Structure prediction request, 70 residues.
Amino acid sequence: MNKNIKRGLAAAASALSGSAMAAGDPGVDAITALSGTAQTYITAAFGVAVLVAGGFWGIRMMKKAFSKAG
Prediction:
């Protein structure tokens, strides 16, 4: 195997063993508990972004329609 691939596999293995040791850490548990709330906020922000983009698209279409009519 390539030396860089071996180094990457060793780093991944050490990261996995480190995360297994941190399973009882209250800080890690608190961050994990927040993931559901974060997902809700991310979904809501995406919905707002789509709504705003649709609003700007609608305004642009109205401007085109009024410029052709007038």
The longest helix spans residues 35-69. The helical segments are 3-21, 26-33, 35-69.
